[in-house]
Design goal:
This protein is of the alpha+beta class. The protein has four helices and six strands, in the order αββαβββααβ.
Length: about 120
């Protein structure tokens, strides 16, 4: 299924434009009330994870959309940004593999974001 949510599209494009790896969007709306979407991405280092986080925040702030919470920024291993309809998880490779949110939330539908992907 393609994504209809404009905030999620903006988050995806922000991550993609800064070369986040393995970006995945999961529709969790039928599984929980905490949010409608999980956006999961990987950065290559703590600096890239922080840069990805900063870029998402800056991009959405232009639209006056601000996270309700932000966790993990100091270490840059796993940063969580909580927006009303989406929770953004930006990991380094090892923590992403260890926590494996994709497996934990395997009942969530993966959202097709191919239309939002930028050319390499």
């Amino acid at each position: 299924m393609a994504c209809e949510n404009e905030t999620v599209k903006k988050i995806f494009r922000a991550l993609d434009s800064k070369k986040a790896k393995d970006i995945m969007v999961l529709d969790i709306s039928t599984l929980t009330t905490m949010a409608d979407y999980f956006i999961i991405a990987t950065g290559g280092s703590d600096r890239q994870v922080k840069a990805l986080c900063d870029h998402v925040e800056e991009t959405l702030a232009k639209e006056e959309i601000f996270p309700g919470n932000k966790e993990g920024y100091r270490t840059g291993e796993w940063v969580l940004l909580g927006y009303d309809e989406a929770i953004v998880h930006i990991f380094q490779s090892e923590p992403r593999e260890f926590y494996n949110l994709e497996r934990i939330w395997k009942d969530a539908a993966e959202v097709d974001m191919s239309a939002e992907k930028t050319e390499d």
